[in-house]
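Course assignment 3, question 2. Fill in each field.
Student: A.L.
Task: Predict the tertiary structure for the chain below.
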Amino acid sequence: MIQGPAWIRGDARRLRQLWNNLIDNTCAYTAPPGRLRVCRTCRDREVRVTWEDSAPGVPEAELPRLTERLYRVEGSRSRASGGSGLGLSIATALARAHGARMEASPSSLSGLCWTLTFPAIENHPPREDAA
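Answer field:
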């Protein structure tokens, strides 16, 4: 297991968009006061980010469809005003563009858990702007 910084190759603007889509989804579909836990682990040349929110959750049968374009879960995580059904589809495309997998599962906080697994950069060279 790697301690300290973990490096992945990516476009900072697109990765920010990925994180923003996940936070927007958490804010829209988590009951107040809500909780979010984000953890990073490194193992076997992979950087794994787990993004877990609190209730309500998503029925397990719906999990594989969450990243389908325009798909919306009816029921506990839907809002009357609703979203476009594009955010998680875009997030998945952004993850794939960075060589990552993005998988949904039930959260230990009773909501939704996203696991993003990125290829790690080994022997990362120092940044040019680092002093």
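Instructor remarks: Residues 12-119 form a domain with the Heat Shock Protein 90 fold (CATH 3.30.565.10). The two ends are 27 Å apart (CA to CA).
Grade: pending
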